[in-house]
Specification:
The chain has 9 helices and 4 strands, in the order ααβαααββαααβα. It is mainly alpha-helical. The protein has one domain. Helix 1 runs antiparallel to helix 2, helix 2 packs antiparallel against helix 8 and helix 4 packs across helix 9. The C terminus is likely disordered.
Length: 213
Amino acid sequence: MAPTESPFTEITEREYALTSADIKVVGWQQALVASQERQDAMAGLIASTLSPGIACQAGCWYCCYLKVDVRSEEVLQIVEYVRGSFSPAQQQRLQDDVAENAKALQAMSGEQQLTANLKCPLLEDGKCSVYAVRPARCRTLHATDVAGCRKAWEEPTNLNIPHTLAPALLYTGEAHLKGARRAFTDAGHDGRVYELNAALAVALAKRPDISSA
């Protein structure tokens, strides 16, 4: 049964108000960072109350093979991070991997994409290479038992595997994301949601300006 709506609606509305104000005062880049920090702080607080605790840790990469949806501002933030932190060789490798993934996904149906088990191009040596600026969607996934994640990775087409995601973290994260997305859309930014690989392929090539999207 889904949780009652009221506490999650409150999270959405609070995040909408805070992000809207930040966009006006400090600009979209800092507004995005502040929103991410609030989401992480909320997740950390909730996780500290859970028993069993969260099993996610560095080196656990099973969820990094799932399809990820992103907002345009998140893509541009990732590109900015890559430009400033990756070597030219790393940037070229990322661009090649992104293009290869995007091509593979384009040939699949929507259902096939959900069970493709495709390695995220940002996964490097078992860790997220852009962890500090990872998309909000990635920030909502927290499991209490790695066994479920491992089995889902081993059997990607088996949709009957019980998930071990922490509901409190999933629902609050979604509520937070909903408020942030609405704030950016109402401020005139691109409100559409994109597939990570396809979006990165475009952004890495020409780095469009979010304000004109």
